[in-house]
Amino acid sequence: MSRVLLVGMAPLPTENARRSYAPGLRTWQFAKALAHAGHAVTLACVRMPYIYELDRPPIVKARDPDLGFERYDFDERVLHADFLARLLRTVRPDCVVGAHTFASWVASTLRTALPLWADLNGHLMAEAQTKACRDGDDLPVGQLWRWEQAILDRADAFSVCSTPQYYATLGELGARGRLNRHTCGYPFVHVVPDTYPPARAVAPVQVRGVLVPEDAFIALWSGAYNTWADVDTLFHGLERAMEVEPRLYFVSTGGQIESHDERTYPRLLSLIAASPHRARFVMRGWLPAEEIPSYLAQADVAINLDARTVEAELGTRTRLLDWAAHGTPIISTTLCELARELDQLGLLLGIPPHDADALCAALLRAARAPAERRQMAVAAAAYVRERYGWEATTRALVAWCVAPAPAPDRAAVGPHAGARALAAAGAPRTRARHIVADLGTSWRRYGVRGLVRRSARYLRRGVQLALPGSRRLSARP
């Protein structure tokens, strides 16, 4: 087995934090699997902003009671110091693994030639697009591409969260020159689905009879309101259903993501404030993690609504796994691969995006058919627990860490293999070989006339390149 430096994100889902995001769950998933398989794991977690108390020391080393080994948590400002470099010298790992995209970017900047597994949990450029659209500014596109580019150029193996993202990542690798003669047939990208959160301590919370009437039909939203969330359709679908079903109440745990999306959640609150049914919208905001299971247990249905975006099609929704594992019936748009899979198996009520009438109809159906929704939830829980546990989803990662090695192009060419592959065609010697081969083909196919015409085109292009401003012309010979 190997010594693995795992760079991830905190908080982990085992912590009783008020905010719990996908990067922390992905870190826990990787750490749990690698340690269980016998690898010696050193875990270094970058703290996500606006979660921990401000007076927390920049670096904290403590034994994680769930994982069973020590881990380091550190602020982002520590990235500018040499903490990780010193950790590399101390641990002397056989490989480095990044869990989730930001941590993979951090791992890709380390000054080491060790084999690197980079996790791209969700398509970063699609996320950049949704954020740019929400903010009305394309600034995130360039910022996030710098991260993505650094990861694509450096890593030796990649994990993604869905089959659609598998193909998108191959396209990006091709654009960066990594699909070259050395990597033909090499398994660059692996689909590693997300898992559901671990069982956690439960703080009893009485929702029925306290926050809503005892006989209320509870529709729950649990988690962040991210850039992909279609809160307009959510509101209008709920409001239409409330007009028909007087028992319907909407209960929300979660809220905005500071410094990332501070518009989506306030948009929903503004819609609710003007609604005649605003008293039936119970907006609880971010709550301690130990309280969430009580809300899931008392909910009649949980709702996930994606806007029609590339991010939704390439990514996934870990909350679906969380809800299903808890036995909570689900209504969801079916844009992501996971939602389509569960819908096709009859394990959730699927609806099209941007369709408030469809959401209303699904809510009324769930409210009027309690036996059907309970049966669906029981089947979904059994399926998700078998197929999406941390051990079942991480086999490719665990196997790679047994004998980690550089990608074939990095082993043969060096750290800039992709860039060198892209530049090869522009090298004078390579260009000359191409011209000679092309002229030979013209001679064999078309004789003297073909050779003369092709030679004239190369001569004309040479004259163009010698003229001022010629490099703006087409590169076609």
Short recap of the structure:
The protein is α/β, with parallel strands linked by helices. It is built from 19 helices and 14 strands.
C-alpha Rg (nearest Å):
26 Å
SS-derived structural category: alpha/beta
Number of strand segments = 14
Contiguous uncertain segments of 5+ residues: 470-477
Annotation field: number of helices: 19
Largest sheet: 8 strands, mixed
Strand content: 5-15%
CATH topology of the largest domain: Rossmann fold
Within CATH, the superfamily of the largest domain carries the name Glycogen Phosphorylase B
Note the gap between the termini: 54 Å
Question: Which CATH architecture of the largest domain is right?
Answer: 3-Layer(aba) Sandwich
Give the neighbour order of strands across the main sheet: 3-4-2-1-5-6-7-8
What's the number of structural domains? 3
Question: How helix-rich are the residues, as a percent range?
Answer: 40-55%
Mean pLDDT: 92
Question: What is the top-level CATH class of the largest domain?
Answer: Alpha Beta
Shape: globular
Commentary on this structure:
With 477 residues, this protein is of the alpha/beta class. It has 3 domains: 216 residues, Rossmann fold (3-Layer(aba) Sandwich), CATH 3.40.50; 172 residues, Glycogen Phosphorylase B (Rossmann fold, 3-Layer(aba) Sandwich), CATH 3.40.50; 46 residues. Strands 3-4-2-1-5-6-7-8 form an 8-stranded mixed beta sheet, sandwiched between helices. Strand 9, helix 7 and strand 10 form a beta-alpha-beta unit. The radius of gyration is 26 Å and the shape is globular. The C terminus is likely disordered.
